Amino acid sequence: MVFPPLREELRGLAPYGAPQVSLERAPVQLNTNENPYGPSAACAADIAEAVRRAATTLNRYPDREHVELREALAAYLSRDTEPTRGFRVDPAQVWAANGSNEIMLQLLQAFGGPGRRALSFAPTYSMYPEYARDTVTDWVQGHREDDFTLDLDRARALVLEQQPSVVLLPSPNNPTGTALPPEAVGMLCEAAASYEPGGLVVIDEAYGEFRRAGTPSALELLPEHRNLVVTRTMSKAFALAGARLGYLAADPAICDAIRIVRLPYHLSAVTQAAALAALRHAPELLGKVDDLRAERDRTVESLRARGLTVADSDANFVLFGTFADRHATWEQLLERGVLVRETGPEGWLRVSIGTPEEMMAFEAALTEVLTQDPLTEEASTP
């Protein structure tokens, strides 16, 4: 007997996760795209009071429909849609879960599965093929251009050829930071609606709040495409990575389909209370997003001034390179107390945007590394 009797396709695989290094070894941790600014004292106090109140009724199951939270999330998302397109997101269009990871898994549980396909374009978020694997959904991967954009004609042709049930596209893309233009979203939605039984186009806007001025959200296209799903998270802009709250906006029929596969009472009363409290502090939390945007743009220019190739970013991270041995560069930065991420195409590294002090430490360490081992290998310029 082989023990444990694991599914054959899972044997020998390692769990997903970025390398975890102690703060003693790497005081500057810039590898998981966390918000370096925790909730303010006022926000933390509001969260604590909300959780205290929720604790008095923890003998009861939570609201499995999380009605109050969906209303608050719909109101928050409407700030993106009402000024530009004149419509409000309805609470019936919103669904929440324990992080965007659970949202994605629920989508593939409902719309993927044996005999169905999920499709994306590399380089992209490395969890997508794992969602497909875990739901026994066939995984199809196209490729981005050298500048990390999509060739729209080729992307459309691949969707029509493969006829996926779910197309997964982050915007901004992780790990490149590249945002999708609205015409790309619309074209892919039309392509995925043109065959039977059709497919969903899921635009993962985990980093949507960090996009540059003038970069629209896919939320604006919801009225035009019933098969469009836009996902968000409170981990990044709201600095609530530890609370685990992700959500989506879509046609109400899609939310109803997810109800079929969701676990009962999947969203705890404590999580709902913490998220509602944080949403009341949205203006001050998003003020820190403005600071991170400015620090990102400064970092891009600083890295380019050092002769590095840097992808344009609408996220809270920057992909830079290229290095003949990126692992050696990663190790040399770690030796100097700075942890970044080895991800994306070979030769590239990704750095999360931290506080100005953290970014100064990163750039000082990088300068030392480049002085010892001056650059890099040739690569196309995004």
Give structural notes.
The mean pLDDT is 95. The longest helix is centred in the last third of the chain and has 24 residues, at 282-305. The protein has helices at residues 41-55, 67-85, 99-111, 128-134, 152-162, 182-192, 252-261, 269-279, 282-305, 326-335, 356-372; strands spanning 28-29, 94-97, 117-122, 138-143, 166-170, 200-204, 228-233, 246-249, 309-310, 317-321, 338-339, 348-352. The protein has two domains: 19-39 and 288-372, Aspartate Aminotransferase, domain 1 (Alpha-Beta Complex); 41-283, Aspartate Aminotransferase, domain 2, CATH 3.40.640. The chain contains eleven helices and twelve strands. Helix 3 (99-111) packs across helix 4 (128-134), helix 3 (99-111) packs across helix 7 (252-261) and helix 5 (152-162) runs parallel beside helix 6 (182-192). 39% of the residues lie in helices and 14% in strands. Strand 5 (166-170), helix 6 and strand 6 form a beta-alpha-beta unit. It is globular. With 382 residues, it is α/β, with parallel strands linked by helices. A seven-stranded mixed beta sheet has the order 2-8-7-6-5-3-4, with helices on both faces. A three-stranded antiparallel beta sheet has the order 9-10-12, covered by helices on one side. The protein has a two-stranded parallel sheet with strand order 1-11.
Could you outline the blueprint of secondary structure elements for this entry?
Layout: E1 28-29, H1 41-55, H2 67-85, E2 94-97, H3 99-111, E3 117-122, H4 128-134, E4 138-143, H5 152-162, E5 166-170, H6 182-192, E6 200-204, E7 228-233, E8 246-249, H7 252-261, H8 269-279, H9 282-305, E9 309-310, E10 317-321, H10 326-335, E11 338-339, E12 348-352, H11 356-372
Parallel strand pairs: 1-11, 3-4, 3-5, 5-6, 6-7
Antiparallel strand pairs: 2-8, 7-8, 9-10, 10-12
